[in-house]
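Notes, p. 3: input format for complexes.
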Amino acid sequence: PKLKETLAKTRESFVSKVTQLVRRHDKIDEDFYEELEEILLQADVGVAATSRLIDAVRADVKKKKIGNPEDVRLLLRERMEELLGENAPLQFATAPPTVILVVGVNGVGKTTTIGKLAYRLRQEGRRVLLAAADTFRAAAIEQLEVWRERAGADIVKHQPGSDSAAVVYDALQAARKRGVDVVIIDTAGRLHTKTNLMEELRKIKRVVSREIPGAPHEVLLVVDAATGQNALRQAELFGEATDVTGIVLTKLDGTAKGGVVLAIREERGIPVKLIGTGERPEDLKVFDGKEFVAALFA
Ligand code: GDP
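Output follows (298 residues plus guanosine-5'-diphosphate):
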């Protein structure tokens, strides 16, 4: 599906409201700004990004002596693009293996994302190995196995309940031996025992950097767009424990909360690198800020 279709719900709730707003008002006054603010907040753009956008639009209106509310649509679009900034592509090691650590709370779509990413990298001709380091859930290991087959990747797994850092160690040894290009590490996401989980992730990271200098090359945090502001809180939590280098925003299809992309960028300073647009192997897109904003305003 086109990004425009994926974002249908967000577009409907956000841009159609903006369009109505600029048509309904005949001047740009405080009422106008208040309504615009409300629309942004409802689209999960978040308080900080919303006030930055409103302030920027206000300044533009003043500087360019704009009187027609219809012109605000374009200003807003430009400022949203600016806020999202330059695109941040996935980083690869200069000499393989590249190690990508994937973290996130259970249910956000972490395993599916790993499967889709493996599929994508395989399509590009890279050798991929999955490390099943979410040893906490037997189902996670099975699910990863299904994706491994679908993508045509290798896997290293141990028994459920075993030491996740040991799985990672074995995976890295196997990767070196087999000439693997990319190792993708699945990790646990049980949040109720938060401190233990963060300890476990730090331990995995230590093993990775000890075994492969310069690794991990990416620490991707997977968050579910449909959870809106919760996704922001998760970025904060995991960001503190693991130096997240990029966000994967899943389930953008079927949610009206797509504005959370802007909130994460503004409040956490972490770039969105990939987006989930469905449940099929090919439903993972490299995030492009300009394309995203264009699809929203299409
Ligand atoms: P995990 O617990 O984080 O590993 O989550 P899973 O990978 O098991 O995904 C949970 C559910 O979300 C599954 O039913 C997935 O098919 C679904 N899912 C994951 N990513 C997306 C997405 O981008 N779009 C949609 N519509 N569903 C997704």
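The chain has a mean pLDDT of 94.
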